[in-house]
Amino acid sequence: MKRFLLLLFILLSSCTNNPENYLEHINGYWEIEEVVLPDGTKREYRINETIDYLKINDSLKGFRKKMKPGLNDTYYTSDDAEAIVARIENNKLILQYSTPYSIWEEVVLEANKERLKVVNEEKVVYLYKRYSPINLNLE
């Protein structure tokens, strides 16, 4: 019985999401797929005119930019960017964004190769999928 409980504990411990592991999946192009409001109302996004590009370096600092995808792996953007500072606090990965006008935070609920899920301070949940560029091979 003790072996079973020990095995169950090890299995459950290994299945928990470690927020440090989320960091390796944050960088890249993300397209919003769904927003869930605090009352449970969902809004799906089938077509997006802009995507988010996130970049966090080894010192846990980086930026987020809004990008407008073009054809054949091209992107259009302004010089505007939101600074990001990532930190782990209370076993959660927190992304703190700042601009000259505001500071806010999001908690990463999930991050893997294909999905990114965050919740903001107003309890709005954003689900992103990894963006796939539009490539037209005209040859």
Q: Describe it for me?
A:
The chain has one domain: Beta Barrel (Lipocalin). The protein starts with a helix and ends in a 9-residue tail after the last strand. It has 2 helices and 10 strands. It is globular, with a radius of gyration of 18 Å. By secondary structure, the protein is α+β, with helices and mostly antiparallel strands. The protein has helices at 2-15, 19-26; strands at residues 28-36, 42-44, 51-56, 61-69, 75-76, 82-89, 92-98, 103-111, 115-120, 125-130. An 8-stranded antiparallel beta barrel has the order 1-3-4-6-7-8-9-10.
Main attributes of the structure:
single chain, 139 residues, alpha+beta, Lipocalin, eight-stranded antiparallel barrel, 2 helices, 47% strand, globular, Lipocalin-like domain-containing protein, Lipocalin-like, signal
